[in-house]
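Lab notebook, bench 4. The sequencing result for the construct came back, and we need a structural model before the next group meeting so we can plan mutations. Quick request posted to the team channel:

Model the 3D structure of this chain.
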Amino acid sequence: MENADVFLGLQDFLERMRQPSAADFVKSIKSFIVSFSNNAPDPERDSAAVQAFFANMEAAFRAHPLWAGCSEEELDSAGEGLEKYVMTKLFTRVFASLPDDVKHDEQLSEKMALIQQFVRPENLDIKPTFQNETSWLLAQKELQKINMYKAPRDKLVCILNCCKVINNLLLNASIASNENPPGADEFLPVLIYVTIKANPPQLHSNLLYIQRYRRQSRLVSEAAYFFTNMLSAESFISSIDAKALSMEETEFEKNMEFAQTLLTGLSTDLDGLSSQIDQIAGHDPGERAKSRRQTLKEDHAIRPKSSEIKPSSKDQSSITKIPSISELENGGAIMLLKEDQTSKVFREYPYMFADAGDLTINDVEDLLNNYKQLVFKYVCLLKGSAVGSATFPLSGSQAQAQQHVETEKESEDNRVIEQNIGLQKDTGRVDDGPNRVSNQENIESNFLKEEAIARSEDNHDDTSEQ
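Done. Here's the predicted structure in token form:
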């Protein structure tokens, strides 16, 4: 069934459940949700109960007049609607319901966050012919959407889209280079690399959730193949070590330690960063405000313009030898920490030591120009180092918002890739727009109202309704 039919499947299912003749179905669904929610979490028992309920309900659909004369596609759509509705209701009860799963999620995410700082395609024996980190960003983006959904099928679609991007890119690369079509030996290493770089939230719990609650009769064929590969990728990452990355043990440990130091530093907020710079530069806290104000009063003519600052031949040589942005940043941080006169380095950037109270309306234009130059330089650096795309660090609220809202405007490169690989569009997303969400909620609300009418003897509220 096409992705575009998923929302229509749920809509059709809820519409049929509003019919008076569906009263027994409504009663069964409600009874199952309530009784299931009252039991303590037990993944194996819960999975078996859900699978058995889906099988029994779908068999009942086939024999009921409501679906008389319906095609297999329509019956399949009803099953998808049932799964989506029930699992959305049970999501908070069954997803990451055990402390061990939560702990595994945290450990796996932390490990990927460390490894992604230094891992390269060569470490996973990905041939140069198949290396395409810029295009892999689209695959990463698909995988990072997995927590935007509650239904098992919707989460699975994120994995399938990611895998299809990779598979089609590999196929195109093999055709362009006249090589044999890529197989599992070429596909799995790229999937592992993309997964590490994406570091999707709660990956372990998401995979378990799909495995336990996606209707088993539908987890077959291509979906089963790609999902199995994702399970293999998770297993590989969980046990990854120096040997797995073709590294010496000492090099691996050194990289992990440095990555840990880097991430710890990046997690420091702006005030903490300013304090560290003060320490490095030898600033006395009592004289800090005076120093900031004095620096802000300096004429911009004293500071060299960005266009006048030219890198030395030594710096240019270093840049050409460093393959990634993260390594460039790490190297610069080390050099900064070793600098004897750090305060002089930052004299070109007086706002580095400024507080909001130090600024005046006259500083706005200068700050805006500095910001534009910073963005331009940063993007040029990304492009020049072949990384292709990145974003500035976000605040906590911005990061949370970005996780739940996907921008509609794609880059030209991504649009071309999507057109070439035929990426599926999932209209059942939670962020399909206020009208889509509102319509679905209205349908569910009407479903419950009709349920109450159809079963007048049952006059208590549905506590599972969100």
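DSSP finds 20 helices and no strands in the chain.
Will bring this to the meeting.
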